[in-house]
Specification:
The chain is an alpha/beta fold. The protein folds into two domains: about 5-150, Rossmann fold; about 180-240, no CATH class. It is built from twelve helices and six strands. The protein has helices spanning about 15-25, 45-60, 85-95, 105-115, 125-135, 140-145, 155-165, 170, 190-200, 210-215, 220-230, 230-240, and strands spanning about 5-10, 30-40, 70, 75, 120, 145-150. Strands 1, 2, 3, 4, 5 and 6 form a six-stranded parallel β-sheet that branches. Helix 3 runs antiparallel to helix 4 and helix 11 (about 220-230) packs across helix 12 (about 230-240). The radius of gyration is 20 Å and the shape is globular. The N and C termini lie far apart (about 65 Å). It binds zinc ion. Zinc ion binds near residues 178, 187, 193 and 194.
Length: about 240
């Protein structure tokens, strides 16, 4: 068992899950080194970094509830290519067996370059990642052996209950969740994290306009329909190309 004075490395995105984990560790009196990787292809980076700043300020004001130490976040840009060949090869081998997001390859590369062991990734219940984490041996350990997933069996509802019981909800509500915010800086109401937030009983976190967009969202519905009925995709494709 690791000592309580050991620094915990945590991938912090300013989102609900990783912020829950951060607050949980600080409440336990732990010292946390957050890491944030800027992905230029994601329009939400500015919002996430602003949320992290607001949350950090709020943590400073709640030192009695959160006695741990929050070190300044290490912020870096995603590299243009994966540096570690072993990581790249392992990822390529995994995706031949199951689909896992590329972000795990980039994160494994990040940890390898910096010599970080057991980087905590705060994602909640996820059957695909659970399967990958429980798969032992190459190529899985080459990627997933570098991380730890402390809240993989914790639901959003359990996190919410914990935050309410401990009085930390107002800080957790400062988190950012939308991947594709509007030009005016509102959550879009249409992307996957917006859907998860609304379907998870937290629609109050979106302004009315975003909730309206959620109810009238078309593209995500068409996309899920297309996945179920490939022939439907073919019809749409034919219309578009006048075939
Ligand atoms: Zn969104």
């Amino acid at each position: 068992m690791r000592g309580t004075d050991e620094t915990v490395h945590l991938l912090w995105t300013g989102g609900w899950d990783s912020t829950y984990r951060l607050l949980y560790l600080l409440r336990e009196g732990r010292k946390v080194q957050p890491h944030y990787i800027i992905d230029p292809s994601r329009p939400s980076s500015g919002h996430e970094l602003r949320a992290m700043k607001t949350i950090s300020d709020s943590i400073d004001r709640n030192i009695e509830q959160l006695p741990g130490t929050l070190l300044p976040a290490e912020i870096s840009r995603k590299t243009s290519s994966v540096q570690c060949k072993k990581v790249q090869e392992a990822y390529n081998a995994i995706v031949q067996e199951m689909y896992i997001g590329e972000q795990y390859m980039w994160l494994a590369d990040y940890c390898e370059i910096r010599g970080i062991k057991g980087m905590e990734i705060g994602i909640e219940q996820n059957p695909i990642i659970l399967k990958a984490v429980n798969s032992t041996g190459y190529p899985y350990t080459e990627i997933f052996g570098k991380f730890s997933f402390p809240i993989l069996s914790t639901s959003k509802l359990e996190m919410k209950e914990w935050a309410e019981t401990t009085g930390i909800s107002p800080i957790l509500d400062l988190t950012w969740f939308c991947h594709t915010p509007t030009a005016t800086g509102e959550p879009c109401g249409k992307c996957h994290p917006c859907e998860v937030t609304i379907n998870g009983g937290m629609a109050y976190r979106l302004p009315l306009r975003s909730r309206i967009r959620y109810h009238f969202r078309v593209i995500p519905r068409v996309r899920s329909l297309v996945k179920k009925f490939p022939s439907f995709y073919y019809i749409l494709y034919s219309f578009k190309h006048n075939k």
